[in-house]
Amino acid sequence: QITLDWALPAKKIEYKNTRYDDRYFPYEPLKDNKILLIMHGLTGGSECNYIHTLVDTARKQGYRVAVLNQRGVNQNLTTPLTFHGGRLDDVEFAINHLKKNYPNAPIVAVGTSIGANMLIRYLGETKNSRSALKAGVALGAPFDLEDTLNSIENTVYEDFFSKTYIEKNFLPNYEIFQTLKDTHGISVEDVLQAKNIREFHKQFTIKIHNHKDVEDYLSTFKILDSHITNIDIPLLILH
């Protein structure tokens, strides 16, 4: 299960010659109104401040905004299968959902961090991406996740990402993960003892998603030269 959080575009009302500041008010646009799809990073969804900033800016520019919350983000899991940023089927499902409900609306997308990585790979792998999205922006995408993890190993950044992910994505689903001991050989206690990101993936991620090892899991995120050359819509990549 994934969710989409929606925000309506906002219209500016000017209170001229009064003591009141101008304000923005939401309105229901036409069905063909432009849409911005936002794809979050690893450790948070639509509740994050940086997502709020993107939403607020887009609304004031007349966009209907949809924020894609991945599995287990701002929602309890309905199955033990967690968010896997290396796979794109949930992203494709969400974009097809937008096209189905707003067939004449131009859709653009912004991805941040892992979300940016997923956006680039989606555009480079999906044959119908040109008909689905008109343009995209990728903010701070890790091009090689294994190289990224190596560069933050044993730093405050690794500690932040591992603790934040476990607190926000793993602990709220503690009970459903306890059912995996017999089926997947996953010990929740061992997972919570993980001292770094690789250990967490070794104890949990590769078992629930059937990868042979951590390197195999991380390889699914790698952005290849072919991804870039296959993109056929305007894409801004910011690092």
Instruction: Walk across the major sheet and give the strand order.
Output: 1-5-4-6-7-8
Rounded to the nearest angstrom, the radius of gyration is 20 Å
Order of helices and strands: EEEEHEHEHHEHHHHHHHHE
Largest pleated sheet: 6 strands, mixed
Poorly predicted residue ranges: none
> Would you tell me the structural class of the helices and strands?
alpha/beta
Task: Kindly describe this structure.
This protein is of the alpha/beta class and 239 residues long. The chain has 12 helices and 8 strands. The strands form 2 sheets. The chain has a 6-stranded mixed β-sheet with strand order 1-5-4-6-7-8, with helices on both faces. The protein starts with a strand and ends with a strand. The model has no long low-confidence stretch (mean pLDDT 93).
Quick structural gist:
This protein has 239 residues and is an alpha/beta fold. It has 12 helices and 8 strands.
What attributes does this structure have?
six-stranded mixed β-sheet, 43% helix, two-stranded antiparallel sheet, alpha/beta, 239 residues, globular
Task: Give the topology.
Elements: E1 3-7, E2 10-13, E3 23-26, E4 35-39, H1 49-60, E5 64-69, H2 89-101, E6 107-112, H3 114-125, H4 129-132, E7 135-139, H5 145-152, H6 156-170, H7 174-177, H8 180-184, H9 188-192, H10 197-208, H11 214-219, H12 225-230, E8 235-238
Parallel strand pairs: 4-5, 4-6, 6-7, 7-8
Antiparallel strand pairs: 1-5, 2-3
